[in-house]
Amino acid sequence: MGEPWLDDASFKQERPDMSADSSERYQSSQRLAEGIVAELYDAIPTKFLQMLQNENHFKDVVSFLMTCSCFYCELTRTHKFIHQVNQQRSSTVLRIKREIAPLIFGGNMSRFAANFDRGSEPDFQKLLKFDIGSRKYPKLAPILYPDLKKNAKKIFRNLFLVKVCL
After folding, report:
1. Phi, psi (5° rounding) for residue 61?
2. Which candidate, 93, 89, 107, 91, places its Cα nearest to that of 160?
3. Do the Cβ atoms of 144 and 156 come closer than 8 Å?
4. Which of the 8 DSSP states describes residue 136?
5. What would the pLDDT profile of 47-69 be if each residue is shown by its tens digit?
6. pLDDT digits (tens, 9 = 90+) for 13-26
7. DSSP letter string over 18-29?
8. Per residue in 81-120, is it b (16+ CB within 10 Å) or e — as a string?
9. Residue 4's Cα: distance from chain center in Å?
10. What is the 3-state secondary structure (H, E, C) of 110-130?
11. Of 34, 50, 75, 150, which one's alpha carbon is 20 to 30 angstroms from that of 137?
12. Is-above-0.85 flag for pTM?
């Protein structure tokens, strides 16, 4: 799983008609959401997916726990903490996208805007796929290797990764 923020509704959707590693998932926000659901189906065993889809079980457990006031106070504190962590993570990702990514990858800052179509940008695709003509993305992208050529002995030695650490 590569998606840090999952919507609860993701667990209740049927398996989409595309694979999780399809390039189609980046064509629109709807296809992106379908790609996340496809990733869920690939990553979570069927028996657990069925349990997550059974909304009543979770409602019953939460309803029972909510009757205990001390649990409710702890749950509220935990919820606030998780909310703050998610806000911080979101702010950090946005800052990286706006300020840091252009320094690492070079080029115009508009290339990192949310509405920019990186799927049709050859410079981005060569960092993500060994075969730009392919619709599938590999588990270990070319950006992890020097000269963007797969070599297990040289993984994680790309200059971009060094720039991330600086």
Report:
1. -65, -45
2. 107
3. yes
4. B
5. 777 766 666 665 466 555 545 55
6. 888 888 888 888 88
7. S-TTBGGGGSSH
8. eeeeeeeeeeeeeeeeeeeebeeeeeeeeebbeeeeeeee
9. 5
10. HHHCCCCCHHHCHHHHHHHCC
11. 50
12. no
For the chain, 166 residues long, the average pLDDT of each consecutive 10-residue run is 65 82 84 85 75 61 56 70 86 84 80 80 88 88 92 89 79
CB–CB of 1/37 below 8 Å?
Answer: no
Q: Report the alpha-carbon distance of residue 65 to residue 63 in Å, rounded.
A: 6
Structural domain spans, the chain? 1-59, 68-112, 117-166
Question: What are the tokens at 74?
Answer: 């702890």
In terms of DSSP H, where are the helices of 13-137?
Answer: 29-43, 46-53, 55-66, 69-95, 101-105, 122-128
- Residue 69 buriedness (CB in 10 A; 0-12 / 13-18 / 19+): exposed
